[in-house]
Specification:
By secondary structure, this protein is of the alpha+beta class. The chain is 35% helix and 13% strand. A hairpin with a 2-residue loop joins strand 6 (135-139) and strand 7. Mean pLDDT is 78; it is low at 40-51 and 175-195.
Length: 279
């Protein structure tokens, strides 16, 4: 029996804004048009409201404590399929310092004041009382999740919750890492009939990659969704014909990291886009 809906309801009753997550930690779409996130996310999710489609629909803004919303058919169906629970840290009045590996945890132990900590699969969440903007990649393996973001609920943790310190706020002002990861190779079938692919025209491919880079660079909100949608658009146009090289993929990853995405988020978004397109 899936105990996640019951746990989530209890958390919502205690005041924690919750939302259901899939096995891959992505949110559900909460209306028919956005089932399986086919819409790719909404660019202007300013207030919660999963049943007020199409604005907004899902993502962090769908987190709620409203018992009426939690009982609506779309939400009930999503919770039955959920594999983990997400919550909106900003809506709960907290900031999560997401430490993604042992090295990041070691850094936190020597650099940040002790607070409530929660063990994760690969590291820890350090939780502070207070709200700030969310930024990815402020240090290697360190993301900040608060406003306009969601985190996984992994239990109450241990230790006393303390006020958000200036040292954490200062991390958001630093330029996110733009170190280029090792590009992920793309396995694609040969063009049908064995002929030369039309996408190999240098101007055609270069224009497409440049437009994709610009789309990511121009994003002012919903960066996660913009990166994912852009990766999917590039793969849809070029992923099956053999045009893409590691240099092209590296350019897209670099543009995403300049907007605050971590190397892990880039590789995850690329892999998710490939899966969605059946590659």
């Amino acid at each position: 029996m899936n105990s996640i809906p019951t746990t989530a309801l209890g958390l919502a009753e205690s005041g924690l804004p919750v939302l259901p997550l899939r096995a891959d930690k992505r949110p559900f779409g909460n209306c028919r048009a956005c089932e399986d996130l086919s819409c790719g996310g909404r660019p202007n999710m300013a207030t919660p409201g999963p049943c007020a489609c199409p604005w907004p629909c899902h993502g962090w803004a769908a987190a709620t404590t409203d018992p009426t919303v939690l009982a609506c058919p779309q939400w009930t169906a999503a919770w039955r399929r959920a594999r983990t629970i997400g919550y909106h840290p900003g809506g709960a009045g907290v900031t999560v310092v997401d430490l993604d590996n042992p090295a990041a945890v070691d850094w936190a132990r020597t650099s940040l004041p002790s607070t409530t900590t929660v063990a994760t699969t690969r590291g820890q969440h350090w939780i502070y009382r207070g709200v700030m903007r969310s930024v990815n990649g402020v240090r290697p393996g360190v993301d900040l999740k608060s406003q306009m973001s969601y985190a996984r609920w992994l239990g109450p943790g241990s230790g006393a919750l303390v006020e958000l310190p200036d040292v954490v706020r200062a991390l958001a002002e630093k330029t996110p890492t733009t170190a280029r990861p090792t590009p992920r190779a793309v396995a694609v079938p040969a063009p049908v009939g064995g002929g030369e692919c039309r996408h190999r025209t240098p101007a055609y491919l270069e224009r497409g990659i440049a437009m994709a880079e610009q789309r990511i660079t121009d994003a002012t909100s919903a960066v996660h969704s913009t990166v994912y949608r852009t990766f999917m658009a590039v793969l849809s146009a070029h992923g099956r014909c053999g045009c893409l090289t590691e240099a092209h993929i590296g350019r897209l990853f670099t543009a995403a990291q300049a907007k605050g995405e971590s190397p892990r988020h880039c590789t995850d978004a690329w892999a998710n886009a490939q899966t969605a397109l059946g590659m």
